[in-house]
């Protein structure tokens, strides 16, 4: 579902860069992982470490996905699947947004499009800086909305005061706690991910299986 995610997925979110997690079959083979161990939504016959933020993938005849950034493998996940965080580094999967709606099936071809959208860095500090740079003049955004649009857990809000201070006073002033008395109107990140022109196809892989 364009601008939303997978139908029925509880993690679907119109303002998140984490609408869908793409896994690669090669990491399952290399680490002998059981099916769905990485909790991906879509498994492709490739190595996701080779994917780059800003790439556009067409899945089947209709769906277009916009790659955002690599999903960091936490220690808890590594312990659960019996692998080290180092082994999973850059291999947990690639996160994406849904640009064009449609249906997909196992075995659908996946086409890498020639066009590219905005690059989003893997480092969440850099992503937060990009979001803060996009705050409209005269407005501020809450820590919760900043976390949502930057693609980090809400628990990161506790680290924002110190982390944002390192991004410079001007940027730090554009984000406020939920109960801040600042009278400036709030921006929720609407429009940050708006992008057009999907481009043309240049390379193909295939879907292995899908899950929610």
TrEMBL record:
SUPFAM superfamilies: PK beta-barrel domain-like. This is MOSC domain-containing protein. Gene3D superfamilies: PK beta-barrel domain-like. It comes from Massilia agri. It comes from the Bacteria. Signal peptide: none annotated. Pfam families: MOSC. Residues 1-113 form the MOSC domain. InterPro entries: MoCF_Sase_C (IPR005302), Pyrv_Knase-like_insert_dom_sf (IPR011037).
């Amino acid at each position: 579902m364009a601008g939303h995610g997978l139908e029925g997925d509880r993690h679907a979110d119109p303002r998140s860069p984490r609408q869908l997690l793409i896994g690669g079959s090669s990491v399952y083979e290399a680490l002998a992982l059981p099916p769905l161990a990485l909790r991906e939504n879509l498994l492709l016959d490739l190595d996701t470490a080779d994917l780059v933020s800003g790439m556009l993938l067409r899945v089947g005849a209709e769906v277009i996905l916009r790659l955002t950034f690599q999903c960091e493998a936490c220690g808890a996940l590594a312990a659960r699947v019996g692998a080290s965080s180092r082994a999973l580094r850059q291999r947990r999967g690639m996160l994406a947004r849904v640009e064009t709606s449609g249906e997909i099936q196992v075995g659908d071809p996946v086409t890498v499009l020639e066009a590219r959208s905005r690059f989003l860095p893997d480092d969440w500090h850099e992503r937060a800086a990009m979001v803060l740079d996009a705050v409209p003049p005269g407005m501020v955004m809450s820590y919760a909305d900043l976390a949502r649009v930057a693609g980090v857990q809400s628990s990161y809000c506790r680290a924002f005061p110190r982390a944002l201070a390192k991004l410079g006073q001007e940027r730090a002033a554009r984000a406020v706690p939920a109960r801040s008395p600042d009278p400036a109107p709030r921006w929720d990140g609407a429009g940050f991910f708006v992008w057009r022109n999907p481009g043309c196809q240049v390379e193909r892989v295939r879907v292995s299986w899908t899950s929610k």
